[in-house]
């Protein structure tokens, strides 16, 4: 069994969801072909900051393209995009932190070492 397949099956057997096993942001890793560590092992602050930036930019741009451009730029639009980024970032960070605490999964490198894998085996292209 390949290391990635074992890791995926083992984490699912512990109770992790498919989203917890995928790296964040998933589309970046899928398009580049790189392998990242599962989201459940990421630092919640890092996830918050990534989701804050990505969520604010994408939601703000989408709302501007489809709705806001009819009215012209307003400061309320900027604030609402930031509020969306903060809200979605907090939700993601809290979900990951709570799931990691429930499953007792904290450090990716230590977990790989305990299971007999190396970082190079997992991150190989």
Rg over CA atoms: 18 Å
How far apart the termini lie comes to: 17 Å
**Total E-strand runs:** 0
The biggest beta sheet reads:
none
Description:
- With 125 residues, the chain is mostly helical.
- Helices cover 70% and strands 0% of the residues.
- The protein has helices at 3-14, 18-21, 26-32, 44-66, 75-103, 108-114, 119-123.
Q: What descriptors fit this protein?
A:
7 helices, mainly alpha, elongated, 125 residues
Summarize it:
By secondary structure, this protein is an all-alpha fold. It contains seven helices and no strands. Helix 4 (44-66) runs antiparallel to helix 5 (75-103).
Itemize the secondary structure elements and their pairings:
Layout (H helix, E strand, L loop, with lengths): L2 H12 L3 H4 L4 H7 L11 H23 L8 H29 L4 H7 L4 H5 L2
Helix pairs in contact: 4-5
């Amino acid at each position: 069994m390949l290391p990635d397949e074992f890791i995926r099956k083992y984490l699912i057997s512990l109770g992790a969801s498919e989203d917890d096993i995928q790296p964040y942001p998933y589309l970046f890793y899928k398009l580049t072909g790189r392998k990242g560590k599962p989201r459940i092992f990421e630092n919640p602050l890092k996830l918050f900051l990534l989701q804050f930036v990505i969520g604010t930019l994408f939601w703000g741009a989408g709302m501007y393209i489809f709705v806001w451009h009819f009215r012209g730029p307003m400061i309320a639009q900027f604030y609402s995009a930031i509020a969306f980024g903060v809200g979605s970032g907090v939700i993601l960070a809290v979900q990951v932190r709570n799931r990691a605490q429930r499953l007792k999964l904290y450090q990716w490198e230590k977990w790989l070492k305990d299971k007999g894998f190396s970082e190079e085996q997992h991150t190989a292209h």
